[in-house]
Write a structure and sequence with these properties.
Elements lengths: L2 E8 H17 L3 E8 L3 H6 L3 E7 L8 H15 L3 E5 L1 H12 L5 E6 L11 H17 L4 E4 L2 H9 L6 E4 L21 E5 L8 H13 L5 E5 L12 H10 L3 E4 L4 H5 L4 E4 L8 H8 L3 E5 L4 H4 L6 E4 L4 H12 L2 H18 L2 H15 L1 H4 L10
Parallel strand pairs: 1-2, 1-4, 2-3, 4-5, 5-6, 6-7, 8-9, 8-11, 9-10, 11-12, 12-13
Helix pairs in contact: 1-14, 3-4, 7-12, 10-13
Length: 382
């Protein structure tokens, strides 16, 4: 059996996005090590049977102590000697691949879960960093397995013409269709929900702008933000601003919800006006819950929302277009229900947890056939 090491940005992200995959590997007899910044989920991780190696504290700024953490990561890889390292997100891909290649014969899988804020900004410093990152990827990704979560990122990596790269498309982390399922709504006043961390690039400001515009039209609707403010992220929207919007009456801020399925059960429409994503889990959960969606026409969202079928796609950073699409859905309950049904059908057919996890297990088999030979194409359920 194999020794698998997952290197992820934060412990909460591992629990929310990678936990089911890791549990599957554990159930198949493999050893699972999690390397991450730790905040509040250490007990959840260790009690599930995973070995947890702390690499910094998640309450600190994300880019603090990079050199120290990199040197520590090299030592972790040297001590643990994993058969496969699976890196998630661009920063972990870069640091993890350098650490793994300095430690000899470790099989490397790099998950590009989105290209990050440096690829979204037109500021000069971000353009320079983008050039630097692209050159790093060209040097680091040869002789590794690489996955992307959407077709736009797949084409981006493909165009880099990196030699000896094994490139795959795996649509996100999947969603538990038995936990997120359609629930009949009884809202007299429709609820439009934006489930996300409260970050600028998630389109929070545009959502509030659309809410303000529609409320001024006396449209009878509630606009709800669900998610926490993240002080460790430079693009976080502060709690004072969120409370201010709420006091002005434009939106309701519900904060973090432990069980998003219960929160989504109250939503008639889900909205995510993000500037760019890998594959937004919040939209996977909304679609699995049978909810009509309004999102931006950007990478990631386009994989989940088919314009005019299970929702609407609008330009990014455009409150006016967003408000028009929302108004159309808010005003048509029948269309909400029809699009919600199409959302559910799409997820069940192609992006359930079982489907995505089995594809990942097949990738492990391809990466290290001696260790995973018996699992290839097993299609075992969770």
């Amino acid at each position: 059996m194999a020794k698998l090491l997952y290197y992820v940005p934060e412990d909460y992200g591992f629990v929310s996005h990678r936990f089911q995959l890791a549990k599957k590997m554990l159930s198949l007899g493999h050893e699972v090590i999690v390397v991450t910044r730790v905040n509040e989920h250490a007990e959840v991780i260790t009690s599930a049977g995973f070995m947890l190696v702390e690499l910094g504290n998640a309450t600190n700024k994300r880019h603090s102590n990079i050199l120290r953490n990199f040197l520590k990561l090299i030592m972790i890889y040297r001590d643990v000697q994993p058969d496969i390292v699976h890196h998630f997100s661009l920063r972990m891909v870069i640091m993890g691949t350098m650490a793994a290649k300095l430690n000899g014969n470790i099989r490397i899988i790099n998950a590009i879960t989105g290209l990050g804020s440096i690829f979204l900004s037109d500021q000069l410093r971000y353009r320079l960093i983008k050039v630097f990152v692209i050159n790093l990827l060209r040097k680091l990704l040869p002789k590794t397995f690489v996955t992307t979560q959407n077709r736009d990122d797949y084409r981006f990596i493909e165009k880099l013409s990196i030699p000896k790269i094994d490139l795959h498309l795996i649509l996100g982390t999947g969603v538990d269709i038995n936990h997120y399922y359609p629930v009949k709504k009884h809202n007299k006043v429709p609820i439009v929900m934006l489930p996300s961390r409260m970050l600028l690039h998630k389109g929070i400001v545009e959502f509030v702008g659309a809410a303000r515009s529609l409320r001024k039209k006396f449209l009878n609707c509630r606009f709800v933000l669900v998610g926490d403010s993240d002080d460790s992220n430079h693009s976080s929207i502060g709690k004072e601003q969120l409370f201010s919007w709420q006091e002005e009456g434009w939106i309701e801020w519900w904060g973090h919800k432990q069980d998003m399925s219960k929160a989504l059960a109250k939503a008639d429409i889900v909205c995510l006006p993000t500037y760019g994503e890998g594959l937004p889990k919040s939209l996977l959960e909304a679609a699995s819950s049978g909810i009509a969606i309004v999102a931006t026409d950007v990478p990631g969202c386009r994989e989940i929302v088919e314009h005019g079928v299970n929702g609407f796609l609008v330009p990014a950073k455009d409150s006016e277009s967003l408000s028009l699409a929302l108004e159309q859905l808010i005003s048509d309950r029948e269309l909400q229900q029809l699009m919600g049904q199409k959302s559910r059908e799409k997820i069940v057919a192609s992006v359930s947890s079982d489907i995505v996890i089995n594809k990942t297990v097949d990738l492990y088999s391809e990466c290290f056939p001696k260790k995973f030979k018996s699992e290839k194409n097993s299609n075992l359920k969770l």
